Structure formats: C-alpha cells, structure tokens
Amino acid sequence: MAIIRKKMISIITGASVLILLLVITTYFMAKIFPDDAINPVTEQSESHSSGIMTAGAAGEASARDYYVSPQGKDVNPGTMNAPLASIQKAIELVKPGGSVMLLEGVYHQTVSINKSGSSDQGYISLRSAKGHTAVMDGKGVQPVENGVIHIDNASYVRVEGLEIRHYDTSSAVVTPIGIHVSGSGRNIEIIGNRVHDMGTHAGRKAGGGNAHGIAVYGNSADPLKQIAIIENELYNLKLGASEAMVINGNVDGFRVTKNLVHHNNNIGVDIIGFEGTGPNPAQDQARNGVIQENQVYNNSSYGNPAYGNDYSAAGIYVDGGKDIKIIDNDIHDNDFGIELASEHAGGSTSNVEVSLNRIYNNSAAGITLGGYDEDRGRTENCIIKENEFTENNTKHLGYGEINLAFDTRNNEMENNSIQANEDGLMITNEFIQNEGNIVDFNHYSSKNQSLWIWKGEEYDDFSTYRTQTGNDLHSKLNLEI
User: Which coarse location class applies to the principal site listed for this UniProt protein (predicted)?
Assistant: First the structure.
C-alpha cells in the first residue's frame, strides 16, 4: 500500500508540474504574439448591406488581414497593434479572402491592385477598419495617370469606405482619378467611398484637361464583368472634358446604385462606347447595366474651362452604350437631366430603358435623345416610360421636357407625366430625318400654354398636333390657367 501511495503522489506531482508549465508557456506566448497576430480579426461578413453576397465566406473567415496606419512602420507584422505604414506593401502581402484595413488617419499615398481574389476563397478588400475613417489625401503627392487607387486586370476585388480628396493637377496631360478600374476581370465592387474636392485645373487654352471620381475602362480584348458601384458619393470634382463617374469600352455587366453624384462641373454618370477604348470595335461599348436609385444633381459645365458658358452636362448620359436600364433615379438641377446619344458617327445608343425616374428643374431638356449635330451617331430602340418630367428648361433654352435631336429611330415615349414650365414646351423635335418614334399615353400639364415641335413644325393646339403628327392619340392635356 505504501508503494502504491508513493506512486500516486509521484503521478499527481508530475501532472501538476506539467499543468504549471503549460500555463506559463501559454502566458508568455500571449505576451510575445498578440491575439490579432494569432487569430486575425476578419471584418468581412457573408453579406453586405448593399445586398451583394460575399464570395468564399469560408475562405474570408480564415484569411489573414493586414492593418495600415499613418503612424505604422513597414518592419511591423501588420497587426492592429503593430500596423504597416505602406498600403502598397499590405496589398502585396494580403491573400484572397483577406483585407487591407486602413486605420484612422490621413494617407498621402497611391496604390495599385493587380492581384485577384476568387469565388471560392473570397475577395481581396481595401477598406477602412471598422469604426475608423481613412482619408487618402493628395497634398504633396505627385499626380499619377493611373489614379489614386488603380485596379488593373484583377477579379474579386473590393474597395470600401474610403475618403479620397485633393489629388489635383494643372497639367492637361495628367488625368486625376479617384478609383480607376482597367483591363479585364470580374466582380469588382466599389462601395461606400467618398471622392471629392479634386480634379483638373488646366485652363481653357490647354483644353480644360480631364479628371474622374470613379472610372471603369474596359481596355482589354476580354471584358470587365460584374462591376458594382454602390453607395458612393462624388462631389466638388473639377472634371474638365470628362465625367464624375464613367464606364467606358469593353464592359459587359455593371450595376450603379444608390450613389450621390452632385455639384461637379461636368457630366454626373456616363456610359460610353465607340471611343476606341476597347481594342475590338465590335466590343468597344459598355453594355448590360443597371443605373438605379441614384441621386444626381447640380452637375453643370457652365464656367468649366473646357466648355466656357455652355450648359452641356447631363446628370446621366449614355453615349454609345447599349442594353441598359435607368430606373428610379432622382435627377435634378443639372444642365440636362438624361441624355441618350452617340457622339461618334456610325455608332448608336440602343436598347436603353428609362423608367420611373423623377427628372426636374434641369436647365435644358429633361431628357434628350440623338446626336447634338448631324455629324454624330444615332439613338434607337429606346423606351422612355412612366417617368415624371417636371418644369425642366429652367434657363429657357428652347428645349422641351423631351427633346429629340439628330437621328433618333424607333424609340418609344409612353405613359410619362410631363409638366412644362411657363414656356409650355412639351416635346421638341427639329429634325425631319427622325423616324419610327412612338409618342402616346402621356399626361401633359402646363401653367398657361402648351407647345409641341415635331419635325420642325410648331403646334400650340393639342388637337391639331395629334391630327397632324399621329402622336399622343391616347394622351391627355391639363391646362392650369
């Protein structure tokens, strides 16, 4: 019994020593390796508030995140407690499913992303850390042609929650861009960013220069696909001859939703084709997109050195794009509300649906279709329906609520509510070449007079207008005298 008792005591003593050693080892491991290095926090969720489902949720849950701070050092491991200084270095280190988290502060840097996440492992993300606001500021930074954030030939990349400002130039040969996507790829998401107070200051003699807030250029033989631009704000941008937001060239599939685009000195949102951006002319046309639930307002080219005193900027412009839906947007106090045209002879804007939008108080037409002169392309097979056009032509420039410019073919304008201002201009169409356009089932109202111009002929009597043109046979007119 004594021998057994001694063995039991030895076993218990040995076990106690082992437990003590394990506790001591765990304590010192925690001191040497902080929690955020052993178990990195991944802030990605399986779904985003915008409704985009995150790819590869399992991969994102286990991927390493890297933290960056203006006070960081690039010799650090990139944890929250020991962040890096360089955003570019963090991008080079991060793997699919991981994020580069920018901590609070101002970053005087630019960054290029030319690596991809994947559908099974997840997105590569560049974002503000949760509860932090990261500002990328261009003061003291040499402007670069590729943009502040440049995503090139990459897929499954997300840029989220950043503020970008003060990237300016006076050179006409440099184009400042806040977020720039180029090449080919798919599943690029630009979500919840603010791009403001930046652009070109090139003078009129230099052509006014160019700048963009967000630019997507499909300049590869393979398209950019599944582009999402959601809940961003673009404002106070000096754009020269360019646009606050542009999707140009070989881009097949995009969604522009819930953005605020306002107080810029040229076009708000532009979808472009036939500019030579894509190497194959047959695919050099942004297509298959939705522009929905955006607020686009106070965008005007008046006073812009590239335009002088012209009112030329549309809130939303489709210039050579096709197969696009423009739905449920608020568009007001721009030069034009919406423009569907092609600036390039031989090209066309086609199969665009414009519906359920509220278009009001724009300086010229609520919507204009067709080329602005006879050297442009055409607008065809577009549907303008169930919109509210209210007191546009505020600068009394001679435009109707709906304007048909040169070479419009087989478009339908039906079931719209059209309320003219005191000028009474409902529809203007000066070109006899326009053909096959259908106008009917609209509801017109005006304060004191109503005018229609159709193929150069002016009508101030609704009955005569309908009889002579065959338009609006089922439409109604209310005069508020």
Answer: secreted
Q: Tell me how far apart the alpha carbons of residues 466 and 349 are, in angstroms, rounded to a whole number.
A: 28
Residue pair 198/234 in contact (Cβ under 8 Å)? The answer is no
HEC profile of 18-65: HHHHHHHHHHHHHHHCCHHHHCCCCCCCCECCCCCECCCHHHHHHCCC
Report pLDDT digits (tens) over 422-471.
999 999 999 998 999 999 999 999 988 999 999 999 999 999 999 999 99
Closest CA to 390 of 331, 474, 318: 331
Task: Sketch the domain layout of the chain as residue ranges.
Answer: 67-479
Largest CA distance in the chain: 123
135: which 2 tokens?
């500002």
**What does the angle CA 180 – CA 184 – CA 188 come to, to the nearest 5 degrees?**
55
With beta carbons less than 8 A apart as the criterion, state whether 126 and 91 touch: yes
Q: What fold does the segment set 67-479 form as a domain?
A: Pectate Lyase C-like (2.160.20)
> The tokens of 395 are what?
């600068």
- What region, left, alpha or beta, does residue 92 occupy, with left being phi > 0 and alpha being psi -120 to 50 degrees? alpha
The answer to whether the pTM exceeds 0.85 is yes
Q: CB under 8 Å, gap of 24 or more: what pairs does 314-317 form? A: 314/267, 314/268, 314/270, 314/338, 314/339, 314/368, 315/261, 315/267, 315/268, 315/269, 315/362, 316/268, 316/269, 316/270, 316/291, 317/243, 317/267, 317/268, 317/269, 317/270, 317/271, 317/341
Compute the residue count for the chain: 481
pLDDT over 70 (residue 18):
no
Distant-in-sequence, close-in-space partners of 381: CB < 8 Å, separation ≥ 6? 350, 351, 409, 410, 411
| Token pair recorded at residue 290 | 């939705």
Interior/surface letters 128-141, b for 16+ CB within 10 angstroms, e for the rest = bbeeeebbbbbeeb
Return the closest-CA partner of residue 110 out of 146, 83, 71: 146
Contacts of residue 326, Cβ cutoff 8 Å, sequence gap at least 6: 291, 292, 316, 318, 338, 352, 353, 354, 355, 357
Alpha carbons 273 and 109: distance in angstroms, whole number: 32
